[in-house]
Amino acid sequence: MKTKIAVAKGDGIGPEIMAAVLRIFEAANVPLDYEYVEMGKSYFDAGHSTGMTAAAKETIERLGLLFKGPMETPKGKGVKSINVTARKVWNTYANQRDFRSLNGVDTVFSKAGIPINLTIVRENIEDTYGGIEHLLTNDVAVGRRIITRPGSAQVIRYAFEMARRKGYTKLACGHKANIMKLTDGLFLETFYEIAMEYPDIESSDIIVDDLCMKLVSRPEIFQAIVLTNLQGDIVSDLCAGLVGGLGFAPSANIGDNISIFEAVHGTAPDIAGRGIANPTALLLSGILMLRYLGFTTAAANIENSLLYTLEQGIHTGDFGDKAVASVNTETFADAVIANL
Amino acid sequence: MKTKIAVAKGDGIGPEIMAAVLRIFEAANVPLDYEYVEMGKSYFDAGHSTGMTAAAKETIERLGLLFKGPMETPKGKGVKSINVTARKVWNTYANQRDFRSLNGVDTVFSKAGIPINLTIVRENIEDTYGGIEHLLTNDVAVGRRIITRPGSAQVIRYAFEMARRKGYTKLACGHKANIMKLTDGLFLETFYEIAMEYPDIESSDIIVDDLCMKLVSRPEIFQAIVLTNLQGDIVSDLCAGLVGGLGFAPSANIGDNISIFEAVHGTAPDIAGRGIANPTALLLSGILMLRYLGFTTAAANIENSLLYTLEQGIHTGDFGDKAVASVNTETFADAVIANL
Ligand SMILES: CC(C)[C@H](C(=O)O)[C@@H](O)C(=O)O
Ligand SMILES: CC(C)[C@H](C(=O)O)[C@@H](O)C(=O)O
């Protein structure tokens, strides 16, 4: 029996990279069925304020799992990112991003011989992402930052469970509780409360600025880090930079009822439709999704094949490494399939 | 005639590194006179809530310039960092940190052959650093983030002036105005308003998460970046990591009436009093101070000597590079003096 999931192809290069990834899934005999949903910039433009049709929302809520391509944030004052809205609507409170060095993807760190292998778990709903702001006068803007104990607890618990599942021995909490004593203080307090339930995982905390300093000098000292939303956003992208950029980092938005697996890079309108986009981040997100669904053998099979393909120097044009001959999206997918 | 400045030796390793730096200044015939002020953790412990005596405050306000060693943040709920209080009390609204690769100081980036040379200007007073927070319930913490137009304008103007003075051709504004549309929106709007007065400096803006991704992969594309307080704090430490850590990065807190030049690393109580601490960050801050005072020849002389000393492999024990023989603080200072 196949598991059915919702698929939103995304905007720009979304449909091309989604097609490539699903073709790889098919070749690997992944037991999935897809229900395509109407979601993205064009649906926003057609009057759906959340960027999706009612039918799309119903389908996603029924199936509980959405695999999505990148979506363009509509322009305009007061308009919210479709990606961020989706995370919020379904309370996908934990954003997990796995960062690891990929052989064949050159970075400053690979050149220095420093392997990257760490996971960031970011709180995905609270903090300044509530968008509660006002202009007190024309010259004074006030924003509110809200951190709650249950909101912190659910993402921190997820991080500990994930650490355990991955066989990690430690989890760090990144924060700025020396300045934001009550808000980040509450997050940190909750972290240590929940840590007591996980004596097998060594828990520690680190101030976020110090964390960033260490991530760019000794990233190998970390296994997993849990943070509040905005700090987690910044640290996630920093870590993406360590492994080659957003094109090489998967992302999962985990909730109790609905989870979303997505590529977090842009929609690259400049190259959309040309069939040359890099499907790696979406494929990595797909692999994360397969593991989440329990299809561990298929996940490992595809992952090994992807890693080997990259190692062979088979790259799409955006790898930045101009010395290597580049292939288009479909040829890249063909190579991954051939290596399965 | 000599210029008189206030000097606070700092806590922990502060007195040792300050002595070394002032000895180098003397050998370089820097025309400065010092008035030592009572400021630091022990003065806080003795009942001075700001960490300084009334006499210290008076002296600093009279002289307008404070050269300070690191100071320990007193423990306890509601207690503020002495460093942060000092910045606030005197409205030192711009925090400037210059980051450059130092030959002889190995980092991931030096190993990859990527030279670092950039300046971060951070707003130093506003944002969540106001410490306006409350617990709405035991489970909900609310913090307020305040950004003002005049507060933004003064630091942004400083950044443009600094860029011009340094001969930079561009200045970027880092922000998260896609999420914090009003607060960071106000900062960004102010940036572009002031940019119009500096047509010789190319202005651009970049979302802070993307900025961090680029800083760890292509730092050479930036010359100077101006940011709000907390984002600037995070990005400053990230950049410190690029050049070897806080032990190798100078810091200036600039205000209209009072400016503070300080080492922003810790007080290293574990090695305090042993004469082995690294005076490089304080010396670099001192060099920045000499330039600020217009003593450009002395600044260049000391700087060249420091760079040459580091390049020779003369290192204190904290460089992390265990292969190189390490010297103590005084021997390091002697070497800098010999190279003058
Ligand atoms: C596009 C933006 C609103 C979003 C965020 O800040 O969460 C992005 O940076 C991300 O990390 O997915
Ligand atoms: C110690 C801490 C309060 C301080 C800050 O956040 O400003 C430090 O990180 C700095 O950058 O000087």
Draw up the topology in text:
Two copies of one chain form a homodimer.
Chain A: E1 3-8, H1 14-27, E2 32-36, H2 41-45, H3 54-63, E3 65-68, H4 82-89, E4 94-100, H5 108-111, E5 117-123, E6 133-137, E7 140-148, H6 149-165, E8 170-175, H7 183-195, E9 202-207, H8 208-215, E10 224-227, H9 229-243, E11 250-254, E12 259-263, H10 280-292, H11 296-311, H12 329-338
Parallel strand pairs in A: 1-2, 1-3, 3-12, 5-10, 8-9, 8-10
Antiparallel strand pairs in A: 4-5, 4-11, 6-7, 11-12
The structure holds 3-isopropylmalic acid (2 copies).
Structural class of chain A: alpha/beta
The strand count of chain A comes to: 12
C-alpha-based Rg of chain A, rounded: 20 Å
- Poorly predicted ranges of chain A (pLDDT <50, ≥5 residues)? none
Bound molecules: 3-isopropylmalic acid
C-alpha termini separation of chain A? 22 Å
Query: What percentage of residues of chain A falls in helices of 4 or more residues?
Result: 25-40%
Q: From the 3D coordinates, which CATH architecture of the largest domain in chain A would you assign?
A: 3-Layer(aba) Sandwich
Quaternary organisation of the protein chains: homodimer
Mean pLDDT of chain A: 95
Strand order of the largest sheet of chain A: 2-1-3-12-11-4-5-10-8-9
The geometry of chain A reads as: globular
Description:
Chain A has 340 residues and is an alpha/beta fold. Chain A folds into 2 domains: 1-90 and 257-340, Isopropylmalate Dehydrogenase (3-Layer(aba) Sandwich), CATH 3.40.718; 94-247, Isopropylmalate Dehydrogenase (3-Layer(aba) Sandwich), CATH 3.40.718. In chain A, 39% of the residues lie in helices and 20% in strands. Chain A contains 12 helices and 12 strands. Chain A has helices at residues 14-27, 41-45, 54-63, 82-89, 108-111, 149-165, 183-195, 208-215, 229-243, 280-292, 296-311, 329-338, and strands at 3-8, 32-36, 65-68, 94-100, 117-123, 133-137, 140-148, 170-175, 202-207, 224-227, 250-254, 259-263. In chain A, the strands form 2 sheets. A 10-stranded mixed beta sheet of chain A has the order 2-1-3-12-11-4-5-10-8-9, with helices on both faces. A two-stranded antiparallel sheet of chain A has the order 6-7. In chain A, strand 11 (250-254) and strand 12 form a beta hairpin. In chain A, helix 6 crosses helix 7 (183-195), helix 10 packs antiparallel against helix 11 and helix 11 crosses helix 12. Chain A is globular. The two termini of chain A are 22 Å apart. Strand 7 (140-148) of chain A pairs antiparallel with strand 7 of chain B, so a sheet runs across the interface. The structure holds 3-isopropylmalic acid (2 copies). One 3-isopropylmalic acid (IPM) sits between chains A (81, 83-84, 233, 264) and B (178-179, 209). One 3-isopropylmalic acid sits between chains B (81, 83-84, 233, 264) and A (178-179, 209).
